[in-house]
Write a structure and sequence with these properties.
elongated
Amino acid sequence: MADPTTRQARACLAWDRELHRLLGWSEEFRLHTSDLRQGIRSEAYKLRERCVRDISLASLNRYVMLMKMLHDDEEDEFESFD
């Protein structure tokens, strides 16, 4: 039987995994405040639920924005050590 998951849903799951990977790094290395991480986790949960129902470009863009918040802050932290 073929996988019933659509390409968009698989993309959404991949973005979700990547976002949680970045959150894990953030927590492990204390790169961001716990409030920021909790807010992003909460939004990620809502996005995951939305993706199960109906994936949209807006949902994927939201994942990108959340990941950018974590990644850009992370880069700022490393640049400050130079």
